[in-house]
Amino acid sequence: MDINDVKDIFLKLKGSKETYPFGQDVMVFKVGNKMFGLMNSHEDRPSINLKNEPVVNEMLRMEYPDIIIPGYHMNKKHWNTIYIEEIDDEIIVDLINQSFLIVYDSLSKKEKEMVNIDE
Fold this sequence. Notes:
Layout: H1 3-12, E1 16-19, E2 26-31, E3 34-40, E4 47-51, H2 54-63, E5 68-70, E6 79-83, H3 89-105, H4 109-115
């Protein structure tokens, strides 16, 4: 899966928006006003950063030690960096969805109503 395919997965999620607060090389995907994913497009080894539960993050890092690592420039307990060209597409889709739902669940009631993913 390449960078454009991954970007499409992020943007297909209802309420997802693409921003560039760190410059044109780093896409930040948000739901409400909270980040649920980052994608670096300038690297030789394209990667995404995604949020997950700490226990799940540890298991993923053990299962894919060279592909999923603690989140670069992120809280390493809650975020992983995933090298997208080196892992199955289904895993990427699943991890993006998990990150989205974790962040969506943390939104205020008002923000959830504005996003309204259930419609």
